[in-house]
């Protein structure tokens, strides 16, 4: 069986055949002429001359390649009979007649397109299929209708379809809304309008720069590792004035406290909760249980029989009068408050800024034998050190007599409260988890809360705060980006009880920022807030977070509020809502001595679009030692840090040297806190270790000449106060305050001289010593500089008991 392989360009072949007079030659077809598939008959359009073995080339093949002619071709009229050295395989080959001098050109006299042809050596093999080539002709394309592709809404879609109907059915003139065809057109126009809007919305929400929905921006920002925040509620300390009837009573966590525009009554009825929220009323709730004691409402501070006694700036301890007996313990919060003006002695003139909360760290009893006063000696967290001097007592003249009066007191019965109103357990919309869809695919169950304006707050653990003696100021600080829906939980409905009642036997669902770190069985969900304040819930897919069981009815408990409106002023919270008779009768009054703080609005959409693309510039992973140092400096108590990476035998260890603010020691408690802070930055395979910075004590002596109009002792006292390592008398840090010097900060002699010359009464300064303590001078005074290494920190404590910690002395001459 022979098969002809014809040209793939029959039209060009026919034109070449019809050309008169004859012009170029071309291959008409090729036949496999022998059973061994080695003989080929090449039939051309016109007679062939001057074709040799060099003019014939066979390319292609998969298994058998490199086919060559076994002998010179035989020319017979318009035929070329060739014999090859081996038969080809089942793949396609290309037979070409070429110009040996230029292999890419056709043989002399041959057409460029018809000088080659595809062949198959296995054409003669038996086959059960049709030998004809299968050709698929493209279907005939109907004429494209003239459509307006700018149609985007209902009216334009309706007009477009009516115009098309007029073209297809010219006799269609019905325009009655009751006509079936017109009703169908309008239905399709409605569907088209809906699909067009959806298409535009999807295209708009697909990009960070054009998205309009808050949920879309939240998800785009998350891809850039930028967590947006939904705002935060405000917090404040509230102190309660408890009477004898409230002695030992417990103010439970979640008690409602009200900030009323008109002051209001101290205690309100419980039924008022059903009417909230109301205009002019801001709702706060206590975050922990608080045991009330009548003796804690007004605690006197002992003045040690000194009519002008004051607690200095930076004080961290005090003596309280323990009559009647106080029940204070470490972890309790007191508020130190100025109640009379030390100048006029009038309550109205008291400085409202002289109110400060402190968290007690130690409590012990004592006794003043001179005044026969029982004392309770208390100390508080160093972060709660007094930021101002607090006068305790003062003598005033009343009616010709000098009377000593208390200027400041301590307030107990302090409870931490934050802004927001807890809503009772209620169903969501829709309230039941949807059934599985077709092919076992779960429909997306995205329920919505019935109320809008969800309150967000940073987590607070009262037991942890009291056990670790968290400072009172730290309890008030909140990071809006760490805030989560306040006190929000989801619980399965108990079908055996009437109404919306949660089933305590079923594990609760808790909110998280995202589900990327959730395990497959974790009962966690994400709250996505829209522009109108509505809150939608998103659950896991049993891979990242668990999916709620089909058919389950979930109830939600959450709080409403938050934002800047919760930043009420001092003494704004004056009412309490409770049905407890002991609280109603025993609480005389309540107030917040300090204004509420921390309330923030949700991040604006424009701010998200602006800040999210820049999030990658903030390094959130510590790779180099510089990254570890910069990450440590994000801690509010770290002024400067230096890191070094060492191989410790089994793994790499990052040795971190920290310069803590205020010159405080890097103790074990702070190391633990800083280690936890840096854990999220740590690179896998790196361990942490802390090394102490290298302190460089200095030895400086200045000889000062005082003006004749000043006393030399006053000038020297002013110099010592100026160069102190603590706070100067005017409340500013001294020249050698630890926060002014950190790793690698040198000391210039010119700065020391300039600081000394700025002191009133100094006429001239001469430098006697300017060197490192305990070492011989190394030219520092002549160079005017004490250089410091990258791991060294200057230190000049000027403590006579510890001269090895550095000192600066003054020799003052002259003066009056």
UniProtKB/TrEMBL annotation:
Biased composition (Basic and acidic residues): 1-18
Keywords recorded for this protein, A-Z: Membrane, Transmembrane, Transmembrane helix
Residues annotated as transmembrane: 747-767
InterPro entries assigned to the protein according to its UniProt record, in alphabetical order: CHP02243
Region (Disordered): 1-26
Protein's name in the database: Putative baseplate assembly protein
Species for this entry: Parazoarcus communis
Biological classification of the source: Bacteria, Pseudomonadati, Pseudomonadota, Betaproteobacteria, Rhodocyclales
